[in-house]
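## retry 2 of 3
previous attempt timed out at serialization; input unchanged, resubmitting
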Amino acid sequence: MELRKVLKFIFTVENKYCYATKYKIIKILGIDIPVYKKTSFNGNRVFIIKNGIKTPIREKLTGLDIEFGDKSRNNTIIIEKPIHFIESKIICNGTNALINIASSQHNIKRLLIRCSSEKSNAFVNIDKNFFVNRAYIRCYDSNVNVKIGEDCMFSWGIQLLAGDGHPIKDKFSGEKINNAKFIEIGNHVWIAQDVKIMKNVRIADGCVIGAMSLVTKSFNEPNTVIAGNPAKIVKKGIEWARK
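## retry succeeded, writing output
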């Protein structure tokens, strides 16, 4: 056993996977030497931005799994450092999705972003200093924009559902009538636990959404408390702080 460990230290070859390439690690006398082999991955790309410089990822980010489906094409994910993911995941099964996550001084914990299969052109943008304990963002439809502003704080059990999951059509024309276009969360918005936000909803800056609320329409007045099922304004002229 000891001889095996010594030989493994002296020389080993290990296959590795990353988002932009597949490569081998050759270990000689304890030194890792990566040997890269470029592959296409159907045009799916992942980048990091560090000190203003964008580069492709060659190794998995700590705390974040990224999964591209077999039929996914030309999806782009951009992550800005510094950032701290915990048990988070991004799944892209469609085409031409763009997902941007800006740097944050807070934990991004148990965030799941899913762009559904056969859907295209989804756009998800999370601005700076986002905090989340557990949230699910799903883009069901094509051409959906999901935007989260700066300094937002999400509790656990949050769902942003940009789409209904199944089409509803006009009986006579056959036209789909439940299209999703956007979900937009303003700057400095606090969303309490177990909130659901449905398609085509805007939330203004500085708002608080109370626990277990179901938000089905837009609220354009800033600095309000929104709560209930369905949600409504219950308090105006408020401010909130993390501490």
